[in-house]
Amino acid sequence: MLSGLRMELKGDQLSVTGSDLDLTISVRTAVSGEADGVAVVPSKLISDIARSLPPGAVTVEIADDEARISSGRSQFAVRTIPAQEFPQFPEPAERSVSLDATALANALREVVSAASNDESRPILTGVLLAAEADGLRLVATDSYRLAVRDLPGTSVLDEGQQVLVPSTALRELSRLLGAAESVTLRLGERDVAFEVGDVRVTSRLIEGDFPNYRGLIPASQPNQLRIGREALLEALRRVRLLAREATPVRLVMTSDTLELLAITQDVGQAREELDAQYTGTELTVAFNPEYLIAGIDVTPGDEITLETIDALKPALIRAVDTPDFLYLLMPVRVS
After folding, report:
1. Which pTM does this prediction carry?
2. Residues near 301 by Cβ (< 8 Å), separated by ≥ 6?
3. Which CATH number fits domain 4-85: 3.30.1700.10, 3.40.640.10, 3.10.150.10, 3.40.50.1820?
């Protein structure tokens, strides 16, 4: 029963597991156990009860198909779900590798947001983990933008191996990495498990072939804009206020100036100039402001480059000081 939480007590260790079959999360915690056993309880109801209880000790007793919960003067009795109805999951693969939690958290922040949310195209809802000559590569695309992040020196997969992990699982994992030092990864044939302290996130892998993203990345870009990342972000957020109803933001690039322009018919327009270094042909290129801001926001460093060929071919955003990340964005055609 996927609406329930499986609670298993062994000695003084309580394990709580929830699953939707594609994603499974298990948590272990130390308790004062009296009798070992397994019970499945309604997940939303038990969570609401736990949040409502006052600070202090909580007692949980399972008897006669009921979970009896008490804390202070509060008492609840909740009907349990037959434990045999909860799905059985195989143990994760024995082979494991340890990853630096901070490096992985940064990589996920930079890449996962570029994955698609469109479930009709499941391949694009995943993040590709691929073995590279010098480490691990993470790649995500929704067909409008592409994010690529390398983790040099990180050996997770066999040579030439790649797997596709649902972005939903990696978003859950990201929430666990804040205070962690390391992550244990266990890769099976059809699933992957990430262990952070007492929490394990297990996800089915996505089957299918990821797009040939390498063919999307231009070999050379004759035009290059170099600019402070934070100044550009702040200006884009201001100009975006007038980019309504899918209006793009235009970037007018000349030798020493970047002009941002948004014009929405019957609403108004916004214009802002920024100092920048630009080499190449004077060019105006337009982008979806949300995608552009998202890419610049996750690009590391104080300075970035925007590399272009023309107004219709993909543009590359890179960090000046960090070669391990790139963000590719398709322009928007404007008249």
Report:
1. 0.90
2. 229, 319, 320, 321, 322
3. 3.10.150.10
